[in-house]
Design brief:
Elements: H1 7-20, H2 24-38, H3 44-51, H4 75-84, H5 100-118, H6 124-147
């Protein structure tokens, strides 16, 4: 596949990639997936096929994984979370999503935020709990970022 961009668009893509400390192709792929997701495309089927060889127990039965697993299924939602909370998630680098302890929590927060936005929780304490969890995750990211400098 080839994508044609104007010079100004290419410059914006390069700036965004540099901001996220990731290759331009990775940033472009994320933007394309986010656009497809916004249109209602089901990207989960592709990820499930890719991850199918590693899923399930020895007998081949599903494990009943949580909604936020595998985290790769929620790449667009994680990007949306990063865009919604840029200051808190400034240390959430693309390569950090290769670490399960980071990726799984990012996906869980993204799914939780989507549920709050859909109105799935009527209790305002859920929003407060989310804020506390987001701060805790931001602290983890900052600590992890310091270790990898």
């Amino acid at each position: 596949m080839q994508v044609t961009l104007r010079d100004s668009e290419r410059d914006e893509l390069a700036a965004l990639a540099a901001e996220r400390n990731e290759p331009e192709a990775t940033t472009a792929a994320r933007l394309i997936r986010a656009g497809l997701f916004d249109r209602g495309a089901s990207l989960a089927a592709v990820v499930r096929r890719r991850a199918a060889s590693g899923c399930g127990n020895k007998e081949g039965h599903g494990t009943g994984a949580a909604d936020w697993l595998p985290p790769e299924r929620h790449a667009a939602a994680i990007d949306a979370l990063r865009n919604r909370y840029p200051q808190k998630l400034r240390h959430l680098r693309a390569d950090a999503l290769d670490l399960p302890e980071i990726a799984e929590q990012a996906a869980a927060l993204a799914v939780w935020r989507e549920a709050i936005d859909r109105g799935a929780h009527a209790d305002p304490r859920i929003e407060l709990a989310f804020g506390n969890s987001l701060q805790s995750f931001a602290n983890l990211l900052q600590t992890t970022s310091r270790r990898h400098r």
